[in-house]
Design brief:
Blueprint: E1 10-18, E2 24-29, E3 39-45, E4 56-59, E5 67-71, H1 82-100
Parallel strand pairs: 1-5
Antiparallel strand pairs: 1-2, 2-3, 4-5
Length: about 100
């Protein structure tokens, strides 16, 4: 197996924010993969900007020779539904009853 390329662009998770009192949108990187600091990337005017178009590979402000990939963080997994919990509980009860007889 080859070593992982350390110069390859690293993913950076972003949140969409607006500048209070203006109509400017930003993608905000809370923790840069290279320096750990917060960086902002301007998207444009609130009315005509398309935030998804600004995602992708961009140069890092802390190290312009390196790039990172702006991505939206993954959604957390949903909890199991009520029916699934009920089925699991019932199957556990059946197993303990089978052991007693």
């Amino acid at each position: 197996m080859a070593k992982k390329d350390r110069r390859a662009p690293q993913p950076a998770f972003v949140t969409l924010r607006d500048l209070p009192g203006t109509r400017v949108l930003f993608w905000v990187v809370d923790a840069c993969p290279y320096c750990g600091e917060r960086h902002m990337h301007v998207i444009g005017n609130l009315r005509d900007a398309e935030p998804v178009d600004a995602l992708g590979e961009v140069p890092a402000p802390c190290q312009p020779d390196r790039a990172y990939i702006l991505t939206v963080p993954p959604k957390p997994k949903r909890k199991a539904g009520k029916e699934e919990r009920r089925r699991a509980r019932r199957s556990g009860q059946r197993d303990s009853w089978d052991d007693e007889t």
